[in-house]
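We now fix the convention by which a protein and its fold are recorded. The integers have meaning only within a learned vocabulary of local backbone shapes. The record below shows the convention in full.
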Amino acid sequence: MDNWQRCFYSLLGMIFVLTSIFLFLLIKRHRGHGYFLSKFSAFTRIRFDHLEQRRQTYCPADKTCQCHPSNSASNIQPNFLCPHRSRTLYMSFAGAAMIVGGVRTTEWRGSMHQLHNQSNDTFDALFLTDPAQCFYLQDPNYQWQGISYYRQLVETYMKLYQRVVLIGASLGGSMVCMCADLATVSIAFNPILDPILLGLPWRIMGAYCPATQARIIRERVHMTMEKIKMQDTMHNCVLHIHWSQLSAADQRQAHRVVGGGKQKQPRQSECLTSVADFDINNQAMSSPTGVYVWFHQCTRHALAMFLKRSNLLIPLLKHHLQVATDDKSENISFTEERNSSIIEIPMLEEKSNDLRVPLL
């Protein structure tokens, strides 16, 4: 009996060790260990250098530029004396990169290059990720000062560049909407403007967001939209929001802004310039100021990926950035008030949140 018990316990030990090794290799291969580190970091606010080195990636158009320290990934300090700076800066806020498919540090880079492929206009790019996966609410010191940190970053770069373009999807789109009143052009795909609507499991196991911070996001987005709509900004600003009209997850977020839904939400009419079905030929696609909501006939939360596969993403971006690439329109003041239109969003049955994030 003793021999049998020893063999049994030895077998259990071997199974435990082999299972642990298998899980470690699986995690490392498919998710990197960024997911678990980001969860631990979000709950404990402990800083991990492995994640912080992925927070910011600065890519100047001039490859010979040596004005920025190579170790500045975790906290970039712009060099105000850099002579190699382009006229345009893209600031990309990555979505749930550490949750879906591992850590991606240069989301949207391919689309940026494709957008300027046939143009002589060069651009610098700053790619941002959220190490703690908490809607960019935590700053590099892991305090809940992320909104102030990133808004100050956008404001600083607006003083260094003629044009700053913000772009992001999902939780990256959330930060775009919170900073849009500081940039020139802001483009948000499927932004999550109210994390509470995602449900408690996603807010804990997915992108972490306490209820108090979710309220701050809602208030900051509302304030940003209102400032743009009322032209209470230092320069012309435009915010384009794209949602999937047939996605239940996007419907819940959209109803928070455009009104309607099961909760009969009021429409934030004082914040919106127009709400319309997506039309590539709509003149509002190239407006220099205002807040525009566009609905697409798409069932997925990953709208940007859907548009890219349908060869619609680059034409869409070209229309949005026409003002940002046309010198003649730089100082045009937009005074025409467009009539806001209300469109009906068909109600779907409540299904899974379908939060698959595009990595472009």
Summary: Residues 1-30 form one domain.
